């Protein structure tokens, strides 16, 4: 695979660049949770993060919009409602205090792209950025 992300921006074409502050296009009415095994769970009804965490006790939930290379991934608070159109990742608790690396971000992007419909995510590199649309 090509280069991965280090910064974030949105373009007028609807593409969203993942990196410094990961963002995925909000094109769906469902919140999506990417599990450790790559399975994607679509949640169309309002749900709090604690409902997902209670089913995955050795994991924490993070939003794709809060990921930044070189920093620890912030955990979604238990009482926060998952937002429609946002992609969330379940990560092992052992990674909760580990800064996110470029290979980590690439791995998460690959999991998201393989678990979502082909027409909703297009992963490629451009100008050292990973673009998901």
Structural description of this entry:
This protein is α+β, with helices and mostly antiparallel strands. The chain has two helices and seven strands. The chain has helices spanning 49-55, 102-115, and strands at residues 16-18, 31-34, 40-43, 59-63, 87-92, 124-126, 129-132. A four-stranded mixed beta sheet has the order 3-2-5-4, sandwiched between helices. The chain has a three-stranded antiparallel beta sheet with strand order 1-7-6, with helices on one face. Strand 2 and strand 3 (40-43) form a beta hairpin. The protein is globular and about 35 Å long. It starts with 15 loop residues before the first strand and ends with a strand. Residues 1-27 and 121-133 have low confidence and may be disordered.
Topology:
Blueprint: E1 16-18, E2 31-34, E3 40-43, H1 49-55, E4 59-63, E5 87-92, H2 102-115, E6 124-126, E7 129-132
Q: Helix- and strand-based class?
A: alpha+beta
Distance between the termini: 17 Å
Report the major sheet: 4 strands, mixed
Encode the helix/strand succession as letters.
EEEHEEHEE
Helix content: 10-25%
Tally the helices: what do you get?
Answer: 2
Gyration radius, to the nearest Å? Answer: 14 Å
Within the largest sheet, what's the order of strands?
3-2-5-4
- Mean pLDDT score, rounded? 75
Say how many strands there are. 7
Low-confidence stretches: 1-27, 121-133
Tell me, what's the shape?
globular
Strand content: 15-25%
């Amino acid at each position: 695979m090509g280069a991965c992300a280090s910064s974030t921006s949105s373009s007028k074409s609807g593409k969203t660049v993942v990196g410094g502050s990961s963002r995925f296009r909000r094109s769906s009415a469902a919140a999506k949770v990417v599990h450790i095994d790559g399975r994607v769970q679509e949640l169309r009804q309002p749900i709090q993060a604690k409902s997902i965490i209670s089913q995955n006790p050795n994991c924490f939930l993070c939003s794709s919009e809060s990921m930044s290379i070189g920093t620890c991934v912030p955990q979604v608070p238990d009482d926060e409602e998952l937002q429609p159109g946002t992609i969330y990742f379940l990560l092992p608790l052992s990674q909760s205090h580990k800064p996110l690396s470029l290979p980590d971000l690439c791995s998460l992007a690959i999991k998201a792209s393989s678990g979502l419909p082909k027409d909703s995510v297009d992963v490629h590199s451009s100008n050292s950025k990973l673009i998901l649309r």
